[in-house]
Design brief:
The protein is mainly α. The protein has 23 helices and two strands. The chain is elongated.
Length: 551
Amino acid sequence: MMPRSGGCTDGHLLVLPRGHVADFTVDPVVSATTQHRAAELAAEIRRPAADEYPGPMSDPARSVALPPRTLATPSHLTVRSGGRPAESCDRQHSAGTLSTDRRVRPSPTAWQGHHEHARHPVEAAAPAAAAQRPRAPGQSGRYAYPVRSYAHELRIQGHWDEAVTLHECALEAATRAGDSLGQGLAAGNLGSIQRLQGQYAAAVRSQQRARAAYWDAGERLGEANAVHEMGIAQRLCSDYEADRTSQEQAGELYRALGNTFGEANTLHELGTMYYLRGDLRASLAVQRRALAKFQEHGKPYGLAFAYNEVGLVSCLLGDYPAAATHIAHGMSLHGELGNRFGQAYSLKDLGVVEYLTGDHRAALATLTSAVEQHRELDSRYGMGLALTELGTAHRLCGEHATALSTLLQALSLHREFAFRHGEGRTPMEIAVVRDLMGDRTGAQTDLDQALRTHTEYGHRHALTETVLARAELLLRHGETDAALADFRDSLTPARDIGAPLLEARATEGLAHCLLPTDPTTGLARLREAEAIYRRIGAPDLARVEEALRGR
């Protein structure tokens, strides 16, 4: 790789990363890694005769040097044309990314890519990249294939900027070579990372490019994966119908290939989409099917996230013990896989269960840990989700000023990523806090914003919750007639979507509105609310029991 700005001795090539260490001795691992890649480049330039290096090195790697931006090299490190290739590392690449070129086979020796105390995931992945060698110079996929060894480690550890650099380089190399399969691999991996970074429109475009490239290469499994990933990005753009269509198309492709693991992934995504739309029973049914398929095929990565989703939906359906159990299973699996990204989401989900079951201080600690872990990973989308729940926990602990500050941070992040569900849910929480702090005008403005967002995007659960929040605000200020109408409007959808906590809150609100004028009906409603709170184990039960004792 020639430096674009010159500065290299004539007759030499330089492996040129984006950063530098002061000299060769500052960081031996970085220096050694750079030398390793320089040797790979030398192997690309000078391909020795087949009998010169026996075994795996008989056909040296034909790849470009692809150093991630945090792996630096001293500026004086150079490699002469004709340099000797690096010693072969006969190890298998990390699991978790699709091998679509069936003519390329990694060595059977397992590479343990997940090291909890590794200084940087690329340091563990770098030897594996050198081992992924195509069998013949003309094979498709040869430019992108070495990059795949890095991809999984970079993804699960949150080093997404480095991953983008790798995949962009691979995509450029594959495009120049006219390598359709390589383009599909690189564009698909790039789109996945762009999605994690919150660049959803860019992610959709990358997956569209991957789909077209896979089609040209006749690689139907890659095409299915690209369509599936494209749907996830569409869902994050709040285009739920497009996501549904993409997942149905991907599912058809997977079924035609007999790929039940791919089917499990599409089911998992459909379950997430149903959850956001408020179709909780449908979400749980689909997520359980996905969970069973992941268990059947022993896919721990998908299984861990399926446990998270089943736990989250179970929580909204009022089954808190099941929610806690599934989330704990997911967190344990994420830990075994070294997936800090998944662990952060598990912490967020666990915190929600804790505050819904009344353990507000525990929730505060758990959600603080979730926010910090997302911050360390630079997962701004995940941090926004965790901050919304943390703000709710602060409110429940009576820390209103801190709650407001936290929720405003969350809203800023949701707007940054155009995450519409968060742009509705968070203003609702802000409205509750503002009202408790005496800012009723601000609270009403935030509630109006939340109602508009959820109505526009069809978030049934969130919309019902927001109408309830408005009703409770009206009741606190003595506007009983207006509150009564909102409680009635929220009761039917709460029952329809199977959200017992919302149903209980609506029923309790109706009771308090009716008690002054119709005590018999009001008491009946209050007892209905008591029964629901008792059944799901909600801490609100104590409040209703006290109200009944006063009667």
